[in-house]
Amino acid sequence: MSVVPVRSASFQAAVVLLAVFLCGFLVWTASADTTPARTHAGPRPTQDDAGQPPGGEVPFEDPTTPPTAQTPDATPGPKVPTFLQSKVGRTDPGKWVALTFDDGPWNTYTPQVLDILKQYGIKATFCVVGNQAKALPGQIREIVAQGHTLCNHTMTHDTAMPTRTPEEMRAQMQQTLDAIREAVPGVPVPWYRAPGGMWSAQVQEVAASLEMRSLGWSVDTLDWRKPGIDKMTQTVHSQLGPNAVILMHDGGGDRTQSVEFLRKLIPELLAQGYQFTVPA
Questions:
Q1: Quick one: average pLDDT of 115-138?
Q2: Bridge-partner residues for 85, per DSSP?
Q3: Burial of 130 per CB tally in 10 Å (0-12, 13-18, 19+)
Q4: Is 102 a catalytic residue?
Q5: Is position 249 annotated as part of the catalytic site?
Q6: pLDDT above 50 (res 4)
Q7: Which of 102, 103, 223, 250 is flagged as catalytic?
Q8: Between these two residues, 58 and 138, which has the higher pLDDT value?
Q9: Given 103, 223, 249, 250, which residue is catalytic?
Q10: Nearest to 97 by CA among 254, 255, 240, 215
Q11: HEC per residue, 134-176
Q12: Amino acid 19: pLDDT
């Protein structure tokens, strides 16, 4: 008769524990294969690291890699051209010139400028500052009543527009439009001019999104420096050519010299065969 060796109780207990462990491992593996992987929710994105303002948490797999900003829905581009217009834009024959006036309206000087233009039957473009339009709505109404064109020159004459955010750029322009249309509801404002000539592609794009073209100039009288009538005359004739856009001011300070120069400039240009128009 053979004798079956008796194993120790400790050995048997180890076998049982091993079996339980193996069964548990197999069950865990099977459940892991059928459970969806969970993404890691990283910290709230910021304007710098995610290209969008803080909001709800954005899931991404690697917390050290910022999530990619969501691509906005495709929207049509601005209908208005974004290039800088510095000429009259007329194609018909003739020596055409356009007068533009910045920084108004101004109680003292805008009425004088309007009277001179009315005397010669000339239409001009007035690039108005929103704060001035808000303070002097009657002047805006008179400019429009006489058939002149309005241009947006920002709410506060902001010469640092290219450094602003798109939202700040838009606010400067929109608030000016609101001030103008409070005085003359429904009036078109086809142009935007950057204070100080501080242009950028983004500034022009924001203007276009508000249905305004960007208006530059080809002749700068530098009248705001008050250089004297003779000096301004010399400057204009050195820069003047067909399709010219002339920059002057009817506001922003003492414009007595600008008004006197305008009285001299118009008859001189008419005598030289120039015709006055507005940018188109």
A1: 98
A2: 215
A3: buried
A4: yes
A5: yes
A6: no
A7: 102
A8: 138
A9: 249
A10: 240
A11: HHCHHHHHHHHHCCCEEEECCCCCCCCHHHCCHHHHHHHHHHH
A12: 53
Mean of pLDDT values over 31-35: 37
- Per-residue pLDDT at 35 exceeds 50: no
* Complete DSSP assignment for the chain: ---PPPPPHHHHHHHHHHHHHHHHHHHHHHHHHHSPPPPPB-PPP-HHHHSS-S-S--B-S-TTSPPPPPPPPP-PPPSS--SEE-S----SSSEEEEEEEEEE--TTTHHHHHHHHHHHT---EEEE-HHHHHH-HHHHHHHHHTTPEEEE--SS--TTGGGS-HHHHHHHHHHHHHHHHHHSTT----EE--GGG---HHHHHHHHHTT-EEE--SEE--GGG---HHHHHHHHHHH--TTEEEEEESSSS--HHHHHHHHHHHHHHHHTTEEEE---
110-120 helix and 256-271 helix, angle to the nearest 10 degrees: 10
Q: Could you read off the pLDDT of 196-237 as tens digits, one per residue? A: 999 999 999 999 999 999 999 999 999 999 999 999 999 999
* Length, in residues, of the chain: 280
Q: Enumerate residues 6+ apart whose C-beta is below 8 A from 15.
A: none
Only one residue has tokens 């004739």, namely 237
pLDDT given at position 78: 73
Pairwise pLDDT comparison (58 vs 147), residue with the higher score: 147
The pair of three-digit structure tokens given for residue 220, joined into one six-digit string: 């700068």
In this structure, which long-range contacts are made by residues 237-241, counting pairs with CB atoms below 8 Å and at least 24 apart in sequence?
240/97
| Three-point CA angle 77, 173, 240, nearest 5° | 90
